[in-house]
Specification:
heterodimer, A: mainly beta, 1 helix, 4% helix, 61% strand, globular, B: mainly beta, eight-stranded mixed β-sheet, 6 helices, 34 strands, binds copper (II) ion
C-alpha cells in the first residue's frame, strides 16, 4: 500500500534518428525523461543534432524543469534551458537588414534561458508542451510542440507532429528574428515490436518564415527543408 | 462416491509432471507442469487445526517457468474446509524473505484475526508462525489470500468452504470448486511500472484507423467524428476495460491454463454444484457453460432465492455457487472469458476423463458507452444517445438509449439534482465542513448527529435518507471534482445493478444481474439506516493513480469512524471509467437492489463506471477494518480506506500494528 509513493524514473528516447537526405547526414536525438512521483516530477529534456560530416557542426538544447501535477492532464513546469550551437558558419545580422550577414569561422554560442510552461494532454489526445522562454538578455520566445498517435494497427502507429518557434524580439547572434520563426510539421511511422522498442521512418517539412528565413537564406539554406528520417523510439 | 470423496478430486487443483502426482489422471494437464495442492486439508477433530506454509516454489506451464508464492507448495493453496459453529486454528508459517499475511475473504472474524498488515496486525515476519484462531460464525464458499505486497498476484490464494449446520435448501450430487485467477510471468512490480508510464501498455485492442472507417460506414462521418471528439475531449478511452490484460496474463482455472483443461466428472442426470471463486488480481470473468443453464444458490457465501441464467460475470473476489444438471453423455466446456476478451480460462465437465467439448470463440472486446462516462441520461429532449461502435450496455437498463439518436450536437445539461432526496454534494459547503469531524463522534450521543464532510472528502448524511433496501436515484455530480488525481468525474451517477455490464446481455441469452438476486429468507427486522456514508471512487489513467474522493490512501487522514451496532448506509459512487470490485472487511453488507428485506448479503460488490451503489451494514466487531478495491494494483496505489468501528461503549481502540 505504499506503492503509491514510489519514485519512478522514465526515460524516453523519442528520437534516435538519421536524417538520411540531408547533405550533412545529421543524427538527431530527442530524450524526454522525468523522475518523481504522481504529483511532483523533475523533467529533463534533451534535443541535439550533430552532423556526421567532419566539416559539420551541431546543436544541443537541454531543459531542466520542475513540474507539478495541477489538473488531471496537466503539469505546470518551470526551470531552465541551455542552448548550445557549434557551427562552422556563424552569421551575424542586425535583424533589420539580413544582407549584412557574413560568414565567420566555426564558433560556439551558448545561451541560458528561464523556461516556464505546461506538459500535458490537450483535448483530443494531443500531447502538448508549450514553453515560454526568457533568455539571460531578456529576450522572450515561445516554443510549442504537439503530437498525436494514430493507430493503423495495434503496433503500427503514425505520429504526426508540429513544432512552432516564435520570438518576441530578434536575437541576431543565433539567427532568430522576431515573430514566427519557423514551423515544422512531420510524421513518424513506428512499429512497436515491443511497447518499448519501435523502429520508425519519418518525413518532415521545416518552413522558415520572416527574418529567420531571410537570414538563413543568406547562408545558402533554403526557406523550406524537407527531411527523410529513420530511427528508433525506445523507452524504459 | 460420497461428497467428501469427490472433493478430493476437486481439491486436486492441478497435477504436475515431475514434482508430484496426486491428482487422478483425468485432471492431469495436457501441457506443462502444475503444483498440486494437498487434497482437502480439513482436519476433523476438536480444534480444526490446519498448518499452512508460505514459500516460494517454481511454477509454470507451456514450457515457461516462474516462481510462485505458494501455500503448502501449490497454486491455488489447499482447500480449507470447516464446519459452521466450530473454531478454526490455522498456523501460518512464513518461509519467504519478506512479510506475509492471510486474509479470510468474507469471513466475520475478530479484528486481530483479519490479517491486513498495518491495519489489523504487523504482518507475519520471515521465519515466524502466526496462529489465526476464530469462531466460524457463518456458512458458505469463501477464499483466502495474502494482503501483503503482490503475493496474491503471485499465487498466494486458496479456496475455503464452511459447511452449514442447518441442512442446505437445495440438493446436489457432487460439487467442485472452480477457482479462476490470473497469472503472469512478468514481475508484478514491472507490470505496475510499465502501466504507470503508459496506461495502455497492456492493451492491444485499442481503436485503430480501421475502426474509424468501420464506424463511418455504420454510423456516418459526422456521428463518428462527434463520437471520437467526445471521448478525445475527455482524454478517455471507451476500451479501457481492463488495465492488465491477456497480453501478459494467462487465465487459470483451478491453477491450470486453458490448454491443461481442468476436468470435473459427472454422471449424466446428476446435479453438480460449482463453487465459483474469482481469485484474479485484476480480472473479471464472464462465465458460461454452453448447453447448460446455471442456477444460482449462493452469492458471497450466502443462500439466495434460486435464479437461473446462461451466463454471469464474476467480479473480482466474489463467490457464486451455481448448480448445473448435465443430462447428456457428453463433455461441457466451462468457459470463462476475461471481461476485456483478451483471454480466457477454461475447464470441462465430462462423464469420463480425457473428454473435451468445443471451446467457444471469444467475443469482440466491449466498448464503453456515454453512460459509463457518467454523461447525464436524464436530459431533456431525447431519452438517450448512441454512438458508433458503442454498446450502450444493458438490456434491462432503465434508460436504454434509442439506437439512432446521435451524439453530435449534444449539449451538456447544467447540473441539477435529479431527485430532491439525493442531491449529491449539492448544498454541502465543502470548505466549511473541513475539519469538522470529531474523533470520538461515535460517543457524542448516537448516530445521526454528524452530517458533513470528513477531512478525506467522505460525505456523511444523517437526514433525508431514503427507505432501506431501495435503489439510489440518479444524482448529478456537484461540488468537488476530486482534483488532479481524478480524471473525467462522472457528471451523473445512477444505479446500474439491473445491467449486466459492458459486453454482456447482447447475445440473446440470459445474464445474471444483481437485481435478480434476493436473499433466501427475508430479514426479520430490516431497519432504516441512521447515517449514510458516501465515498467516491476516483482515478486517473493518464498517471495510473487510484484513490477515494481524489485522495490516495497514503495521503488520507484518519480512519472513517463507525459506531458499534449502528445501522449505516454505505454509498459507493464510481467517478472513474473503470469498474471497481469494492470489499469491506469485518461485516456483511446488504446490497440495496430494490428488494427491501430480501436484499442479498455481499462481502464484495462491483461498482460499474458512473454507478452509484448503496449497501446497508451494522458493524459489530470493534477495530479498524480495511475497505478497498479488489483490483490489486488499484488497492496498492491508494484505492483503500480504513473504517474504525468503536467498542460497544463508544470508545475507539486501535489494534496492534494499526499505527502505520
Ligand atoms: Cu479499482
Amino acid at each position: 500500500m505504499d506503492l503509491d509513493r514510489v519514485i519512478r524514473t522514465f526515460v524516453l528516447a523519442e528520437q534516435l534518428e538519421v536524417h538520411a537526405n540531408q547533405p550533412e547526414r545529421p543524427v538527431d536525438v530527442e530524450l524526454v525523461s522525468w523522475i518523481g512521483g504522481d504529483y511532483r516530477r523533475l523533467f529533463l529534456r534533451v534535443q541535439g543534432e550533430q552532423s556526421t560530416r567532419r566539416s559539420g557542426g551541431g546543436e544541443m538544447q537541454g531543459d531542466v524543469l520542475y513540474g507539478r501535477f495541477i489538473a488531471p492532464y496537466w503539469s505546470v513546469v518551470a526551470g531552465a534551458r541551455v542552448d548550445t550551437r557549434l557551427r562552422k558558419d556563424v552569421v551575424s545580422v542586425d535583424g533589420e537588414n539580413p544582407s549584412n550577414g557574413r560568414r565567420a569561422p566555426s564558433a560556439r554560442s551558448t545561451r541560458g534561458m528561464i523556461a516556464v510552461g505546461f506538459v500535458g494532454l490537450a483535448p483530443g489526445w494531443f500531447e502538448l508542451e508549450p514553453t515560454l522562454l526568457v533568455s539571460d538578455k531578456g529576450d522572450v520566445s515561445l516554443d510549442l510542440q504537439s503530437s498525436f498517435d494514430l493507430l493503423l494497427t495495434q503496433r503500427l502507429i503514425v505520429q504526426p507532429w508540429v513544432e512552432i518557434n516564435a520570438a518576441v524580439q530578434a536575437v541576431p547572434e543565433i539567427g532568430v528574428g522576431s515573430g514566427l520563426n519557423d514551423v515544422e510539421v512531420g510524421a513518424r511511422m513506428r512499429y512497436e515490436i515491443r511497447r518499448k522498442f519501435a523502429p520508425y521512418l519519418g518525413v518532415s517539412l521545416l518552413r522558415r518564415t520572416g527574418v529567420t528565413a531571410a537570414t538563413t537564406h543568406n547562408l545558402g539554406e533554403r526557406r523550406s527543408v524537407g527531411t527523410i528520417m529513420a530511427g528508433l523510439r525506445i523507452w524504459r | 462416491m460420497t461428497r467428501r470423496r469427490f472433493l478430493h478430486a476437486a481439491g486436486a487443483l492441478g497435477a504436475l509432471a515431475g514434482l508430484r502426482r496426486l491428482a487422478p489422471a483425468s485432471v492431469s494437464p495436457a501441457n506443462g507442469s502444475q503444483l498440486i495442492p494437498d487434497v482437502e486439508t480439513r482436519v476433523v477433530g476438536s480444534n480444526n487445526r490446519v498448518e499452512l506454509v508460505i514459500d516460494r516454489t517454481p511454477f509454470g506451464f507451456g514450457g515457461r517457468r516462474g516462481i510462485a508464492t505458494t501455500i503448502n507448495g501449490s497454486v491455488p493453496g489447499p482447500l480449507l474446509r470447516f464446519r459452521e459453529g466450530e473454531r478454526a486454528a490455522i498456523h501460518v508459517t512464513n518461509r519467504l524473505r519478506e512479510d506475509t499475511s492471510i486474509h479470510w475473504h468474507g469471513l466475520l472474524v475478530p479484528n486481530a484475526m483479519d490479517g491486513v498488515p498495518g491495519v489489523n496486525f504487523p504482518g507475519i515476519h520471515p521465519g515466524q508462525t502466526f496462529v489465526y484462531e476464530f469462531p466460524l460464525r457463518q456458512y458458505g464458499t469463501y477464499w483466502y489470500h495474502s494482503h501483503s505486497g503482490f503475493q496474491e498476484q503471485l499465487g498466494h490464494y486458496g479456496p475455503l468452504i464452511i459447511d452449514p449446520i442447518e441442512p442446505e435448501p437445495f440438493q446436489y450430487d457432487r460439487e467442485y470448486v472452480v477457482m479462476l485467477s490470473d497469472w503472469s510471468f512478468e514481475n508484478p512490480l514491472k507490470i505496475l511500472d510499465n502501466i504507470k508510464k503508459q496506461g495502455s501498455y497492456y492493451n492491444f485492442q485499442r481503436r485503430t484507423v480501421g475502426d474509424f472507417f468501420r464506424d463511418v460506414d455504420r454510423a456516418g462521418l459526422r456521428a463518428t467524428i462527434a463520437d471520437r471528439w467526445e471521448w478525445g475531449k475527455m482524454r478517455m478511452s471507451p476500451i479501457d476495460i481492463a488495465d492488465v490484460t491477456g497480453s501478459t496474463y494467462t487465465y487459470l482455472l483451478n491453477g491450470l491454463p486453458p490448454a491443461s483443461n481442468w476436468t470435473g466428472l459427472f454422471r449424466p442426470g446428476e446435479r453438480v454444484r460449482l463453487r465459483f471463486i474469482n481469485a484474479g488480481a485484476g480480472s473479471y470473468f464472464d462465465v458460461r457453460i454452453p448447453g447448460l443453464e446455471m442456477t444460482l444458490v449462493q452469492a458471497s457465501g450466502q443462500h439466495v432465492q434460486p435464479v437461473t441464467f446462461d451466463e454471469f460475470r464474476i467480479e473480482i473476489a466474489q463467490t457464486f455457487d451455481v448448480i448445473v444438471q448435465p443430462t447428456e453423455d457428453r463433455a461441457y466446456t466451462i468457459f470463462a472469458e476475461s471481461m476485456d476478451r483478451s483471454g480466457h480460462a477454461r475447464g470441462t465437465l465430462a462423464p469420463r476423463a480425457g473428454m473435451s467439448a468445443e471451446v467457444p470463440k471469444r467475443r469482440p472486446r466491449p466498448t464503453l458507452g456515454m453512460m459509463d462516462m457518467g454523461m447525464a441520461m436524464s436530459m431533456g429532449g431525447h431519452g438517450g444517445m448512441s454512438m458508433p461502435g458503442m454498446d450502450m450496455s444493458g438490456t434491462q437498463a432503465p434508460a436504454k438509449p434509442s439506437a439512432d439518436a446521435s451524439m453530435a450536437g449534444m449539449d451538456m445539461p447544467t447540473p441539477k439534482p435529479a431527485a430532491p432526496a439525493a442531491s449529491g454534494h449539492a448544498g454541502h459547503d465543502m470548505g466549511s465542513m473541513r475539519g469538522m469531524v470529531t474523533p470520538d463522534m461515535a460517543s457524542s450521543g448516537g448516530a445521526g448527529v454528524f452530517e458533513g464532510t470528513l477531512r478525506d472528502g467522505t460525505i456523511i448524511r444523517a437526514s433525508n435518507l431514503r427507505a432501506p433496501g431501495t435503489i439510489p436515484e440518479p444524482v448529478m455530480h456537484a461540488g468537488s471534482t476530486h482534483g488532479s488525481a481524478s480524471a473525467g468525474t462522472a457528471m451523473e451517477t445512477r444505479s446500474r445493478l439491473s445491467e449486466p455490464g459492458a459486453g454482456l446481455g447482447e447475445d440473446g441469452w440470459r445474464v445474471l444481474v444483481w437485481t435478480d438476486v434476493k436473499r433466501l429468507t427475508p430479514a426479520a427486522t430490516f431497519e432504516a439506516p441512521a447515517r449514510e456514508i458516501e465515498l467516491h471512487l476516483t482515478g486517473n489513467m493518464e498517471r495510473y493513480m487510484w484513490s477515494i474522493n481524489g485522495i490516495k490512501y497514503s495521503d488520507a487522514p484518519d480512519p472513517i469512524p463507525l459506531k458499534h451496532g449502528e445501522r449505516i448506509r454505505l454509498t459507493i459512487v464510481n467517478d472513474s471509467m473503470m469498474a471497481h470490485p469494492m470489499h469491506l472487511h469485518g461485516v456483511f453488507m446488504e446490497l440495496e437492489n430494490g428488494h427491501g428485506p430480501e436484499c442479498p448479503y455481499v462481502h464484495t460488490i462491483n461498482v460499474k463506471p458512473a454507478e452509484r451503489v448503496s449497501l446497508l451494514a451494522t458493524p459489530v466487531d470493534p477495530g479498524p477494518w480495511a475497505f478497498h478495491c479488489h483490483v490489486l494494483l488499484h488497492m496498492d496505489l491508494g484505492m483503500f480506506r480504513v473504517f474504525q468501528v468503536s467498542e460497544p461503549d463508544g470508545t475507539m481502540t486501535t489494534s496492534e500494528g494499526a499505527a502505520v
